[in-house]
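Show me any protein, fold above all:
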Amino acid sequence: MDEQPSAEPAGEAAHALDRRAELSEFLRSRRARLKPEDVGMPDFGRHRRVPGLRREELAQLAGVSVAYYTRLEQGHGRNVSTEVLDAIARALRLTDAEHNHLTHLAKPKQHKKRQAARPQQVRGSLRQLLDTLDGVPAYITGRRSDVLVWNRMAAAVFGDWSELPPQERNWARMVFLRPEYRDLYVEWEQKAIDIVCLLRMDAGRHPDDPRLAALVGELSVKSEDFRRLWATHDVKEKSHGVKLLRHPLVGELALQFESFRLAGDTELALVTYHAEPGSSSAQALRLLASWGTDATRAGASSPH
């Protein structure tokens, strides 16, 4: 199946995320989570108006002037050197994903006009590959958590996305706006966190993407959970793990997932799921394979 989300909707071209605000809020949020004792600094018990390290303490740790760091935290980062960003990342104890996000926000790459808004393409050989993964739920995602292509088993497990309008084939919209996905994920909160973290990374790489800005705006209006998680400014990417599902037809599934960035386009990711051999989940997958896409319809009509 290779139906993709539609091109940029009319009227979105003027909208974009505020890169300076994103940089400012990200640095403040990372600074707020550190205490002096976390970084080996004395805490004399003085009243702190805000949580976490003060700007002057962070600047001291990074070896830059308070004025310089203050300008960076106010969103003025275009002329900052890589060495200074590295020092600030170390002082803030950033993960690799957070460090990359900081670099994208502070020193954005110049993209061709409207590049981020163009529909992403998946080559035919990858579509064929998905179809050959018999018994393995698999799909390919792109920017903004768009689901671009998927196989028969993915439809059996997660729902038949071909029945959704192209613009709705998006993990963020499905997880936050469609009740059936709250029912599907046993650990829904963790799935929601993972999606928001991925969107944050996209926002760092493509702050001028009008479709991303529109998506964030829509979810902020429609979902209190999204607004809460978006405000944390957390970024991370999970390349493997276990998802616990509550499928309406076969009950609980424990599926191990692997996510692979594609060499030809690192903004595309192939995601596969499999069950432990001999487990009840493996048995359930075989049952779903026999049903195919009809599993979704049968499950929707069965009692929960």
Remarks:
- The first strand starts at residue 138 and ends at 141.
